[in-house]
C-alpha cells in the first residue's frame, strides 16, 4: 500500500512513500501506551556513516499500525540531530482498488511534481533513506547488494520499483566488470550508487549541476531548442576544512559552513548547504563573519540545520582567498607544498568516477574548463607511480567510496579540472 506521508519536521514536507516498514529482524520492545492506547513496539537501529538512526514502530495487538518514529543521533558526539514521526491516520489491510484510492486531506496542499519515470529528487531520496526497507526478493545479485553495507536504507515502493532498481544494479555491475577486465590504470567497484539512475546521481551528489541542467532545459523549451547536456556548471560544495599553524592541523567546522554561509537561490555561486556551494563563497563568509568555530565546538551533523555561529566560539581567522595560476601544474604543486591542502573543482559526472575504487584515474572524455566543473574537493598531495604522475585528492563521499575516501588522478593533461579552478584560504596573522 502507498500513501502520502506527512513528515513532522522543521520545514514540513510531504512525499509519496511506502507506508509500512518490514519489521522482520527488528527487536520486540514490549507493550507501551501511545495516545492512551496500548500498543506493541518493534525497534531497529541503523548507521548511515556518521549518523545513527533508531526506528520505533508501534502497532496495536491486532496489527493495526499507529506510528513510525525515527530519531537521528551523531554517532561520535551523541548529539541529537533530527526527529521524524509518521502517524497512521487510517489503515485497511490488503491492496485497494485504484478506483477507490483518494488523496488524504493533509496531502491535498502538496503540489504534484512532474519527473521522469523512476526518478526521485534529491530531497525525496534523503527523506526516503530514513524509511526502513520494504524487502522484495527475486534477483540473487541485487538481493546480496541490498543486504550489504552499500544497500543500507534501501526502500522499494513496489515490485516494479524493485525490478527497476535491480536492472540498474545489473547494468552498473556489468560495466564495472568489463572495465576491470580491461586491466586499466585504475579499478572500479560497486558502491552505494549501484542502483541509482543517472539523474538521481546528478541531483543528489551534484545538485548545482542538476539545477543548471533543469534551467537549461526550461530555456530550451521556451526557445524551441534541444536542452543543453553535460557541459553545464555544477556543484562546488567542498571547502578547505583545516589550516596549519606551527606544524599542527586545526580542524574547523564543516557544519558551520553548511548552516551559515547561505546566499540567495538566484545567485549561481551561493551556498545552499547540502545542495551545493562554492569554496570561495564559504571562505568569504568566514572572513565577513569574523572567524569560524573549531570542529570540536561545532560538530558535523550531516544535514542542514540552523546557524549557531552567534552562540559558538569563533576562532579561525582568515584574510580571504587566492588562486594559483590556472592550468599550471608546477604552480599548483608549489601551492600544495607551501600552503597545504587546496580546494579544487572537478568533473565528477563521469560514470567511471562514480565507481572509482583504486589506482590512478584517467578518463579522456572528462571536462576541465572551470565553467564545466561540478564538484569541489580537497587536493592533498601529489606523487608518481608506474601508471604516471598523479594528484591525490580527498573526496567528500565518505570513506566507503574510492580508496578510503581518496583518489588519484593522472597529473599529465587536464586531470579533469584539478589545475583549472584551485583556491586556498589566506590565513590571518593569528589564525587562532
Automatic annotation (TrEMBL):
GO terms for biological process: proteolysis. It comes from the Eukaryota. PROSITE patterns: THIOL_PROTEASE_HIS (PS00639). It holds the Pfam family Inhibitor_I29. Residues 226-426 form the Peptidase C1A papain C-terminal domain. Residues 228-237 have a biased composition (Low complexity). InterPro entries: Papain-like_cys_pep_sf, Pept_his_AS, Peptidase_C1A, Peptidase_C1A_C, Peptidase_C1A_papain-like, Prot_inhib_I29. Residues 142-201 form the Cathepsin propeptide inhibitor domain. Residues 216-237 are annotated as: Disordered. One of its GO terms (molecular function) is cysteine-type peptidase activity. Belongs to the peptidase C1 family. This is Uncharacterized protein. It comes from Chlorella ohadii.
Amino acid at each position: 500500500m502507498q500513501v502520502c506521508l506527512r513528515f513532522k519536521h522543521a520545514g514540513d514536507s510531504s512525499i509519496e512513500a511506502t507506508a509500512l516498514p518490514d519489521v522482520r529482524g527488528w527487536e520486540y520492545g514490549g507493550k507501551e501506551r501511545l495516545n492512551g492506547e496500548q500498543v506493541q513496539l518493534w525497534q531497529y537501529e541503523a548507521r548511515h556513516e556518521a549518523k545513527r538512526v533508531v526506528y520505533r514502530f508501534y502497532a496495536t495487538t491486532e496489527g493495526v499500525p499507529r506510528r513510525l518514529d525515527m530519531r537521528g543521533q551523531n554517532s561520535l558526539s551523541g548529539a541529537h540531530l533530527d526527529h521524524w514521526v509518521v502517524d497512521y491516520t487510517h489503515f485497511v489491510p490488503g491492496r485497494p482498488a485504484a478506483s477507490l484510492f483518494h488523496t488524504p486531506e493533509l496531502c491535498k496542499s502538496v503540489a504534484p511534481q512532474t519527473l521522469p519515470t523512476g526518478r526521485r529528487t534529491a530531497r525525496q531520496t534523503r527523506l526516503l533513506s530514513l524509511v526502513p526497507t520494504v524487502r522484495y526478493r527475486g534477483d540473487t545479485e541485487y538481493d546480496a547488494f541490498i543486504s550489504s553495507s552499500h544497500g543500507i536504507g534501501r526502500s522499494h515502493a513496489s515490485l516494479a520499483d524493485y525490478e527497476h532498481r535491480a536492472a540498474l544494479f545489473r547494468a552498473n555491475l556489468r560495466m564495472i566488470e568489463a572495465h576491470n577486465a580491461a586491466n586499466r590504470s585504475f579499478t572500479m567497484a560497486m558502491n552505494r550508487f549501484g542502483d541509482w539512475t543517472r539523474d538521481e546521481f546528478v541531483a543528489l551528489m551534484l545538485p548545482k549541476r542538476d539545477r543548471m541542467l533543469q534551467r537549461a532545459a526550461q530555456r530550451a523549451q521556451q526557445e524551441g531548442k534541444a536542452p543543453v547536456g553535460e557541459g553545464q556548471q555544477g556543484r562546488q560544495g567542498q571547502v578547505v576544512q583545516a589550516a596549519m599553524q606551527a606544524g599542527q592541523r586545526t580542524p574547523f567546522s564543516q557544519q558551520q559552513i553548511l548552516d551559515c554561509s547561505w546566499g540567495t537561490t538566484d545567485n549561481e555561486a551561493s551556498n545552499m548547504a547540502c545542495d551545493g556551494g562554492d569554496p570561495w563563497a564559504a571562505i568569504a563568509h568566514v572572513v565577513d563573519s569574523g572567524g569560524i568555530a573549531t570542529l570540536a565546538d561545532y560538530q558535523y551533523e550531516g544535514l542542514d540545520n540552523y546557524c549557531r555561529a552567534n552562540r559558538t566560539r569563533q576562532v579561525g581567522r582568515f584574510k580571504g582567498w587566492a588562486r594559483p595560476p590556472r592550468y599550471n601544474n608546477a604552480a599548483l604543486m608549489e601551492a600544495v607544498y607551501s600552503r597545504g591542502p587546496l580546494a579544487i573543482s572537478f568533473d565528477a559526472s563521469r560514470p567511471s568516477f562514480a565507481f572509482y575504487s583504486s589506482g590512478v584515474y584517467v578518463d579522456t572524455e572528462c571536462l576541465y574548463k572551470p565553467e564545466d566543473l561540478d564538484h569541489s574537493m580537497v587536493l592533498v598531495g601529489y606523487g608518481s607511480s608506474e601508471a604516471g604522475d598523479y594528484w591525490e585528492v580527498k573526496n567528500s563521499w565518505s570513506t566507503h567510496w574510492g580508496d578510503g575516501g581518496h583518489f588519484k588522478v593522472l597529473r599529465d593533461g587536464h586531470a579533469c579540472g584539478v589545475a583549472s579552478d584551485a583556491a586556498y584560504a589566506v590565513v590571518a596573522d593569528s589564525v587562532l
